[in-house]
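During the no-cost extension, the postdoctoral fellow (Dr. R.K.) reprocessed legacy sequence entries with the updated structure-token encoder. One reprocessed record is reproduced below for audit purposes.
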Amino acid sequence: MGEDEKREFHFINEQIKKKPFYRHKWFIRGVAGIVLALIFGTAAGVMFAIVQPWASNQFGRPDEPTQIVMVQEETPDQEQKTESGQTEQPADNQPETNTGENEENKETDAVGEYRDHYGQMKNVADAAENSLVKIKSYVAKMDWFSESYENVTETSGLVFRIDSNWLYILTSSHFIRSAQQITVTFPSGEVADASVRRQDSVTELAILEIPVKSIKQSTIQSISSISIKGISSVEKGEPVIAVGSPMGYTDSINYGMITSITEREDVDGEYKVIATDMAASDTSYGFLLNLDGNMVGIVAQKFKQTGAADTLVALGISDISYLLETLAAGRPLSYTGVIGKSVSVDVAEHFSVPYGIYVKKVDADSPAMYAGIQTADVITEINGESVGSMSEYEDILRKYQEGDTLKIKVRRKSIDGYADVEMKLVMGAR
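Re-encoded structure tokens follow.
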């Protein structure tokens, strides 16, 4: 191998060298920049001093800013002079009162009103406690292993009436249905057995009875009654108190207000449904009271509108007072099985429908079905009496008892229009 081959071979033999830094050149450049800045600054100052007086004269810039003065037309009442010659200041110019203090007083008053309002409602609820009882129903059942057990359901009741022989309690039939035993616990703590006097499947109301002789006299004397008479109407927005089991468990209370009042058709009647803004469940039951402590409604979740929020609804007491009296008396309620809607004179003329009761539905196995009444029939007469509203329909039915025969006249639509049809209906009981 030659010397050239022994020589180490490099692809790149070049070296990168930094550009030399000349300090004197940078110093000269810095001094030159400072000198130029001083020259231009001095020139600008001289030009501004020369041009400023000329610009002020040309554009008329005032030495002081112009003040805007609001000129108000003088009236005789604005300026009055006293005998001493001094001008009296108008009333509007008097020193203002402390608005912050006023707002604080308003807030204090609002809180006070709030406390007074709810204090009044609590007093009503506390007074009602002496009329409320706890009800337990016992139903014997069998499990999958044929072992018997007792199903216990709790709800609330209201002492409805006391006479010389019996004590009557208003409650819901929904919670006592098929019960083998019913017990009632009074506010005094005494427990007594009760039996069903009468119940209604349509409204799910029931009256329990307890012999007076089976209850201590001290317990009877401690019971106070809640008035249900004289309450003809309630208004939307009116505050109400729910007592009993409004939250789904006994001995609970709730406060709220009425949000709507509607009419709802059901079997053989029309009922006033009171909706509130209070939360509720399927097990809610109780009684609505106004601020005077009078009962205005009975909780009836059955009548809650389909799709509505889970809020408390009640039947207006004014529409069911007769029903309660009938149940307490132990008499059966008349029953035909018709769910109808009133056809007023205006509606009849506008839609060309006969004046009377439009049949929306007929219960299966009801007296109306056996009589031949059909959906879309219009009931116009009962035993020769004209009927044009559900209230008139109810009033007529109250005149008759179970087993009575009624002559019903309806108008039934056909190809040629409405035709008169007569039929006989044997009154039932519910």
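Confidence is low (pLDDT under 50) at residues 8-12, 61-85. The radius of gyration is 45 Å. The remaining legacy entries will be reprocessed before the final report is submitted.
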